[in-house]
Amino acid sequence: MADKIKRTLIGIVGSIALALGFSGIVLPLVPTTPLVLLAVFCFSHVSPNMAVRLRSSRLFGTYLDNWYNKTGVTRSYKIRVLIFLWLGIGSSMYVVNYLWLTTILGFIGVCVSIHILRIKTRNVAKTSAGKLCCDNQQSGDTYNPMQSAH
């Protein structure tokens, strides 16, 4: 009985973390990465199939793959993230209009920007067939969605 309650609570925490992580895609101050990683961790303990589905999803799969394999992200991805970050923070600063709060928002924006810029940048090149590939990714570095989610 206690194990069932524990599994249920872990599943609820995973679901809440996933929902908040999803909202972090559009809300600049909600940390997407730690919340989605927490969701995968929770689901790997209560529903390994859900963890595998999350890690192979179209929305978070590549993001999680880059995190787990430490392969980095593309320059264009960093630019998009920084643009959305500063659009969100800038609009929040404009709406709030309190000096102390705009200072905190600016500080958070600078810290998150530094973090994003420090993430390894993965180079992207075109193959002879015209497909995009990552030139610093070695075979064996890619995530196989059929692997265990642990």
Question: Could you describe the 3D structure shown?
Answer:
Strand 3 (124-126) and strand 4 form a beta hairpin. The chain is mainly α and 150 residues long. It starts with a helix and ends in a 16-residue tail after the last strand. The chain has six helices and four strands; from the N terminus they run ααααβααβββ. Helix 1 (2-23) runs antiparallel to helix 2, helix 2 runs antiparallel to helix 3 (48-55) and helix 5 (75-96) packs antiparallel against helix 6 (99-118). A two-stranded parallel ribbon has the order 1-2. The protein has a two-stranded antiparallel ribbon with strand order 3-4. The chain is 64% helix and 7% strand. The protein has helices spanning 2-23, 32-46, 48-55, 61-69, 75-96, 99-118; strands at residues 73-74, 121-122, 124-126, 132-134. The protein folds into two domains: 1-69; 72-136. The model is unreliable at 135-150 (pLDDT under 50).
Set out the fold topology.
Blueprint: H1 2-23, H2 32-46, H3 48-55, H4 61-69, E1 73-74, H5 75-96, H6 99-118, E2 121-122, E3 124-126, E4 132-134
Parallel strand pairs: 1-2
Antiparallel strand pairs: 3-4
Helix amount, in percent? 55-70%
Unreliable segments of 5+ consecutive residues: 135-150
Question: Structural class of the secondary elements?
Answer: mainly alpha
Instruction: Tell me the number of strands.
Output: 4
Widest β-sheet, arrangement of strands = 1-2
End-to-end Cα distance:
24 Å
Supply the number of structural domains: 2
